[in-house]
Amino acid sequence: MRTVRWMAVVVALATGTGVLNAQGTRLDVTATGGYMMPNNFNMAEYNRWGAGVEVSWWQRTSGSEPWKALRRYPSFGVAASFLYIPEGTAGHRFGLAAGLRAPMWRRMEYYLMLGLSTYTKPYCLTHDPENIFIGPWVSCLIDIGLQCNITRRLSMKVSLVHTSNGNLYRPNKGLNYLQGGLTYAVVADEGSAGAEPGRRPAVAVGTRNEVAVTASHGLVMSRHLMQDGYYPCYDLSAAFLHYVSPVLAVGGGVDLWYNFSHTWQLPRYKDRYPLPLYAGLQAVSEAFWGPVSLRVGVGFIPLTSSRVGMRLYERVGAYYSLGHTYFGVGLNARAGMIEFVEWSVGYRIPV
Fold first, then answer.
1. CATH number of 2-193
2. How many Å apart are CA 294 and CA 160, to the nearest integer?
3. For 209-350, which CATH class?
4. Which residues have CB under 8 Å from 9's CB, separation 6+?
5. Which residue has the higher pLDDT, 259 or 28?
6. If DSSP codes are grouped into helix, strand and coil, which group holds residue 263?
7. Relative to the CA of 215, which of 13, 123, 153, 310 has its CA 20 to 30 Å away?
8. What is the DSSP letter of 267?
9. What is the pLDDT of residues 94-145, one digit of tens each?
10. Are residues 79 and 213 in contact, defined by beta-carbon separation less than 8 angstroms?
11. pLDDT given at position 338
12. Domain segments of the chain as ranges
């Protein structure tokens, strides 16, 4: 009952704000469904299907000069969601998140939401000892996805959702969701900031390239180890970026890193090389808002130790630029499970 009351307040706040219908606002209702997967590929017996609804309110910004030239603008908003999961190991999921949505190309937009989630059956040693995925009543929620605008009011989207508690409470393997949805805009007052779906940019694009070189120092999260404490990780990456618009660049790159936690892990397997050099190849996208940018990468690790981790990895970093130099903080994950937090400094080389 406590969870129901808490989420009722959340939904009321999220939906009540949308009816203000100020210039450039949207109130979306999404019918969503997807597949729940534990954050461990060896536990497929817990996979489940689920379906639910999401209500979100968005405020479109006036935009910086590059955005004005494109006549398409980023939006910021909040979303409240519910996902019904029959026989879900942690019960059903409620969520509240805030984030941004920005245009990519023609009808496509991407979005990133960060927030909190709660489940109807969190871990309880007495009543539910099998739930080793979600520990406390409140966990984090990360939602990354793509949206295709079919008409001014109707759109489709697909997303990857992750919930866990960041190792602040155990157990904490976390749960992942691959979700899809059909969205209808109940309120769609785009104002002067709006653009018809698929409208071409009003500026020339594809005329700028750069190589972004980044050096990072990270801390490996202790949940990957059988003891307390943190280990350092050092990373060097280089990415070629092509600007498809003044505010969005895409490309690919190479990552090289040493993870010092493996000096403790791998000797247990009698590995002859306890500190392997990891090399990864990744696809990269970076969006810009003035001096602030958000870089997202997904990659594959061809050079690694067979004893540690998955070969798929993801990176998310937020940066602030001072000329060609930039500083930032980010996360590195393996198949959706955060491996380390890192602090970075980099330099952009025009080519």
1. 2.40.160.20
2. 17
3. mainly beta
4. none
5. 28
6. helix
7. 310
8. G
9. 999 998 888 777 788 888 888 888 888 776 544 455 555 666 678 888 898 8
10. no
11. 72
12. 2-193, 209-350
Q: What is the mean pLDDT of residues 141-161?
A: 90
More confident site: 288 or 216: 216
**Residue listed under structure tokens 């109130």:** 27
In contact, 178 and 336? CB cutoff 8 Å: no
Q: Given this chain, do its domains 2-193 and 209-350 carry the same CATH topology? A: yes
Q: Cα–Cα distances in Å, from 238 out to 4, 13, 73? A: 47, 43, 29
* pLDDT of the residue at 333: 80
Q: Which pLDDT score is estimated for 206?
A: 47
CA 290 to chain centre: 21
Is residue 291 packed enough to be buried (19+ CB in 10 Å), middle (13-18) or exposed (0-12)? exposed
Residue burial 306-318, b: 16+ Cβ < 10 Å; e: rest: eebbeeebbbbbe
Q: How far is CA 305 from CA 140, 274, 308, in A?
A: 30, 9, 6
C-alpha–C-alpha distance, residues 135 and 185, integer Å: 35
Say which residue, 11 or 173, is predicted with more confidence: 173
Higher pLDDT, 269 or 186: 186
